[in-house]
Amino acid sequence: MLEESPEARVDRLVLEYAQALPAGRPLDLRLSLRDDLVIESLSLVSLTLQLGDELGVNVMDSGIELGGLKTLGDLVSMARTLSSQKNQPTTHRSTRP
Question: What is the distance between the alpha carbons of residues 75 and 47, in angstroms, rounded to a whole number?
């Protein structure tokens, strides 16, 4: 089975969380999460946490500012960032001077 791309994950989750959907597909990246797709703030938090879980990344530890997510394109960009963070090796810092 092929792994789902970050874009496909976002599309699937947006279809699940959105209360309003435009007829055309693929969805336009300029769509407003709040105004066009009617995804409320708490739903957006839930969506991003679920996205992080699916990508194997803790969204809260990633440093991404959820308040900056305004459009579908912002959400796709965040998914790409999370996906790339997952693939980066972690570095361990020494606590000694």
Answer: 10
Q: How many residues does the chain have?
A: 97
Q: How far is CA 35 from CA 8, 52, 58, in A?
A: 22, 23, 27
**What tens digit of pLDDT does each residue of 27-50 get?**
899 999 999 999 999 999 999 999
Q: Quick one: which H or E segment has residue 96?
A: none
Domains within the chain, CATH numbers bracketed = 6-85 (1.10.1200.10)
> Alpha-carbon distance 30 to 63, whole Å?
23
Render 31-76 in DSSP notation, one character per residue.
-BTTTTS---HHHHHHHHHHHHHHHT--GGGTT--GGG--BHHHHH
